[in-house]
Structure formats: C-alpha cells, structure tokens
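Dear support,

I submitted the protein below through the web form. The confirmation email said the job was done, but the results page showed an empty box. After a refresh the structure appeared. I'm attaching both so you can tell me whether what I see now is the final result or a partial one.
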Amino acid sequence: MNMVNKFVYRFPIWLKKNLFNTPINSVISIFAIAFLWKFIVYVFDYMLVGAVWGGTAKTCREVGGFCYPFLFEKARFIIYGFYPSELLWRPTLAMVQLFGTIFYIKEPSRFGVKTFIYLTISFVIFFWLIGGGVGLSPVTNDKWGGLPLTVMLAFIGILFSYPFGILLALARRSELKILKMLSVCYIELIRGVPLISVLFMSSVMFPLFLPDGVNFDKLLRAQIAIIMFVSAYMAEVIRGGLASIDKGQYEAAQSLGLSYAQTMIYIIIPQAIRIVIPPTVNTAIGMFKDTSLVLIIALFDLLNTTKTAMRDAEWLGFSLEGYVFVGVIYYVFCSLMSKYSKRLETEFVVKER
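What the results page shows now:
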C-alpha cells in the first residue's frame, strides 16, 4: 500500500517535471500522447480484437483484420524454406544446440581459447545436422533456407570477420608501408561499394576467374563475400579502439621486454575490444539484417522465404502479416545482441574499477 501511495504522489510530479514543464512541451506532450493512444488502440483492435484467428484466406478478406491463418499456413515455409518436411527436426535441433552453445559461452568468465573450440564443434554439428552425412541422409544446400540459413550466414560472418578485422586494423597501423597500403586499399575499396554488389561479384564474376573444372558452391561464395565485406567495417571499428589506447600502455609493455605480438595480444587488443563493444555490436546487428540481400543470388534466407510465401495465389494481399512476423524475428535477435553488449560494457567497467 505504501508503494501505491508513493506512486500516486510522485507520478504527477514526474509528469510536470518531464512532460509539462513549459507551455510548448505541454502542447507537444498532449499531441504525442493522443497520437500514441490512437495508435495503440488501432493496433490492439486490428491485431487482437478484430483479428481473424481461424479460417481461410476468404475469411480473412471478409473480416479485414490481422490474418493469423496466413501465418499458421506459411510459418513452416517462412522459417525452414524448402527443407524436406519430414526432416524438419534436423534444422530445429541444429539451431537449438547452436543457441545453447552461445548461451553457455556468453559469460565473460568463459571467454578464451575454449570459446572458439566450443563454437567450432557447435558449427560442425550444425552443418552435420542440416547437410547430413555420417548416418544422416544428405540434403543439398539448395534446400536450405529461412531462419537456419540467416543464422548461419550471420553467425559465421561475425565469427570470422572479427579476427580478420583485427588483422586488417593492425596492418593499417603498421609501419611497414606495403602492408599498410594493401590494408588501406582493401578497406576503402570494400567500404566504397554496397554489399549487394560484392554478393553479385562473388556469384557471377568470381567463377569466371577460376580454372576449368574448379568451382565453389554458391552458398560458400556468399558466405565468403559477407565475411570479406564485414571484416572491412570491423577493421575500422577496431582501429578506432587501438587509436584510443594511451601511448603509455605501449611504453609499459616495452619496459617489460614484451615483443610486438605479446604487447598486442595481452595488453593492447583486449583493451581496444572493450572500448569498441558498442560499435562492434552495431556492425554485427547491421550485418545480421544485411543477410537478407542474398536474395540477389537466389538464396532463400528468412526474408526471401517470406516474400515467396506472399506470392501464393491463394494468400495474395497478406504482405503485412508476413512482414510483421519476420520483423518480430529480426527484432528479437537484434534486441538480444544489443542487450548483451550493454551487459558486457557494464561488467567490463565494473572490473576496471
């Protein structure tokens, strides 16, 4: 009861201090609250009260509310693409064990060499379950799609682009002119073109330069293109962190007799990584969403399977439902990455103190 009384007493004070402290702010707050209220009421009515929870496409068109039968009918295809229906337990189990591994190693106290070992084992199991072999019937990667494909492209892209980005950042700050020049040329070239053009080049142009009889799988080419693209952006993020390290850290390492490699591995890079956690996660989130561009080379990621589901003649006109569904999935992943980065920032700041 005491808490209720405090709320009743403090809430009007908070409103006056933050929303109605001046005449202009009061007018803006009133319009904003009215607009927000109208929006919430409309969404609540459209997606819950007036929504269609059962029936066919015809029922949805007659009622006019949010069409949940479309999601019930197309959710399997949106999430798994053309993967064989009788084998859906395999990509499901693959994602569960991958997420379980990531959940286990997310604690900073578990960071280290074992982290990469666990991730490597997890991805081996992931590819074994989805692709088959060694006791499982094979499924060609042209059948892979939906959420498993998006997760694979994004997580492998993050995992490999980060160490490549560190190497590029070190090369760009190197005193060896040729190494610095090559690094600068690579970073500026990649950052100067959109990802869609890099994917197109990897799919169409790259095979033309290979010897006769040598060819890389389309999915592998897309994954390499994503890693190459993101590593250039990661390099600039890491370079910013390296530039912020005080010169005294280098001098202290030299006074201890540490080599350049030891200085970077044990002193400089760990501090730089802590500093650049927010921009690193921002780049990772952007890359996770940019995986949808693989549709340009006919890979059925999560967004492409959603668009394909919308083209069904029986369910034409329900694009909103599909985009809302896939938007929620993207939001959940991006939100979790963002919250995890904030947690890492907090823990590292506490440890430094």
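Response: this is the final, complete result; the empty box was a page-load delay. The chain has a mean pLDDT of 85.
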